[in-house]
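Nonsense-mediated mRNA decay factor SMG8 structure dump, as promised
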Amino acid sequence: ETVFSKRKQMVIVGVLGKSNEAHCNKLVEFGMLNIQPNLEDIAVSDGRVKFYFRTEGDTLFLHFDSTFDNFVMLKLAEEMMSANVSHPSAHFINFNSTIRTRYARVLLFALQVCHVLILVETSVTFDLSYLSLFKSLKIIREKYVLKFLPEMLKNAGVGSFMGKECRLASPRLIFLLSLPETLQKPSKEDIQALEVKLEDFITKTLRNEFIITNNSAMSLFSIPKGKQFVFYTQTKEQCKNTIKDMMMMLSVCFDDPSQTAIISKRNEALMNKLKPYEFIGFPDFKVKLDHSEKRSNSRSILDLVQMLVIETLEPIFDEECTGVKHRTKCGMTLPTIGHWYEMFQFMYQLFIENPAKSCYNDFEPEYKSYLENFHALVDIEEQLFREVGEQGLELAMLKYNEMLPMHYSSSYHESKYQDALHLLGQYARGPQLKPCVEKLKGYCDSIWISGKQQCEYPSLRGNPCLMGKHKSLDASDHSSGVIYVSSCNCGRIQGHREDPYTIRQANYEFYQIMAKSCSNCNRLEHVQFPVFEPSTSDFRAAEFINKNLSNLMTFESTGRTESDVNNINLYRSARDSPFLSSSERSQNCFTNFSFNTVSYDGPDRTCDGAQAKDRNEELYKKDWALNHKTNTEEMVGIENCNIDKNRTTDSKNQKDEMMFKVSVAEKMTAIALDPEPRFDSVKHPSTTEYLPGMLHAASPAGLLPRFPSWSLVCLGSSSIYTHNTGLPEHVQSGFLSGSNYLLPWDVNVRLEHAQSWAASYEKIRLRKKTNLHSSKSFERNNSFTLKIFIGVEYECLRGHRFIMKSPDSILRSATEIARDSGSNVVFNDMPIYFPCPCRNAINNTAQLMRVHIITPKAPVNVIIDPKVKIFQNNMQSSFTFNTGVAQSIKLTQSSYWILRLPFVYEGDTGPLEPPPEVNPNSAVIHGVLMAGMYGIRENELNEESLLGS
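structure tokens r here:
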């Protein structure tokens, strides 16, 4: 009642700032507390105001708890983290912004309701971050507070004594700082000199920033001119030793008669027991000892405050004014505490409580504008980061738009975005970084998607389409812009080819176009591979599911025999033949041959009834029966044809010879077993459905592709090739120097029925009036050596061609060719992909594209059955591709044949991309041309064969 009476006038002194203790009480250094703050309730909170009354000086102290107190800040951080457990922690800048904004509200409120304000610092220097707060609050007070506060105070009926400035006075600011603890205590003179230097620095800084001016009405606060306003204090030991402080207070309590008078004699014994030792209540332990010398040397902040209070209670002049014209009375008001407290409660609601609400729609427009814009004006750091982030965002957008092509891929888009993001990161900081990154991402994506997105549909070689994003029904409408160099079917000329998007483009259409430019391709003899021939216009691609991941479909489900799938058992049967010696097995000189004694003159290898009538009926039946047994029993006529390989020794030279022995009796037996061909057992291809991909071992039976992926052409006579000069450039262009030679393959053969050959040969030559002694010469030379030239050609995407001399080495000169060098490529799997020796660092992988075969002048035919196996998933699965021809292909005698392999291989699930890099030592893990491709077949006894030999 005494304090808040409406007749009592007091000076209001506010204490605000920083603290490190849990109690957050900054009045410890004033020496006016009647109880140790550690013994009080330490439940601090932001914006709490505690009142302390001092009767000696007519002073009311207001102690403000704010977010600059460490434990208040810690409590706020815990509340923010517990409120958003599921969300990530707030950015430090956001947290610091909240701390500054809340402290600024308390500081503005204290400047409105106090005569004197003491800012407490825990360090030895002035915190320069106060400058931005002071400038922001000065703007807020002039722009908002002076507009809404007078009207609201008038409507509330409080604060009429405050005048148009709506504050008690231009509050005087005092800075209380702490000296660090050192071993040597500084002298009083040193401390005073430090205070004077800091005062000069603060005055100069505040005036330079226009925070204080000569006109106190336009200043946020004032500082006493020519008087002390900076005070350094040293932390007292007793303030830190809580137990000692409690003992001193307890001693005073026991010694004070006023305190012990109320204690009855009954409780006196109990009080004596509470004494920690016997003499605790004696005067020597009193804290209120009168040491005049100590008091004269002591320095107290309370003395400085009391001096300002005395000046406030007396009529004074504005000390900010230095000129005579401005020498006027200062507008300072000393209201009664009762009226002041009414004003305090109302303003506390305006400045502290209402800003904590989530909605401001119920307030006056001016006041609402103040609440909404307060944070933006105070938090200049967020504004700085926002402006810098916007500047960086603009530069990053310009960076992304630099030299953009008409269409570009996702990888190029990502690269440009990363460059722009790197530039943004050099500017954007703090909480604005994430929103700026999101804006940049959205901007870059919108630019790319709206008209600049590249199609990126991959070609069969894995190159993306360079055209704009488009919907195409036909894959051939795409274009990657990549150009390769490839040779035609016969290898005579080379041309540029676009990166293919369909198997038809890769393996058929390009070579058809090249054939129009080549002078050889269209006029050369070529083998027709089986293709789909529709019987109606309503044909379609077959739909099937290959459930066997190993690409080997069961024979029961497809209706095919094992010989239709693979000839591996065929070679295994030959290898396990009892007629082979151990040395022959180890040298693998026979295992990959497929010998057969039957053949047809025409390229067509299907059994037709009309052809049977034109031929010798008995020979046709024998041939068909033997071939039928070969396909169903996988023995290549070993049982029915009795083909043996014996070792003979010549007196002059010891060589391995291949003997062809045909037993007529056994042929007749075969015919008797199956006198009439059963054409209904042959699987006829479909004429309504075609195979959508390429033929391979696991393809459904009866389905054929619409176009051939292979090519087999005859360049002409074997005389085209000369082993001394190799392949000439005008015949085969693009070969690397020294790698244009074919490899010789010597095969020793002896024909057991050479006498019948000689007799027939004699009759024909007599009829042609030839030499009579030729038959004897042929009879004596029934054993002869076949010289076959083989060339496994590779071609890279730049058109470089070369011959391989073994599965892991390239032929580089003619001197590397030895006798029978061709056996290295005949009896081994040759890799499909191999590094090209050219200097191209990108796409230097060459592919096996052609096989050159020069057949000998002899009464035998070279037969081929090419099979390519492409491996996938580290050789865990594979596809074995074939030409689709049921029988081995017979090549004419003394001719130059070229087999062109597919440019791209396609399985059931799509194209099989070639490896980007190939190691020469492990090239076979990607795919091979399987060994066993070459074979020899005895020629038929006719006039053409004899004359050709």
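DSSP finds 28 helices and 29 strands in the chain.
lmk if u need the other ones
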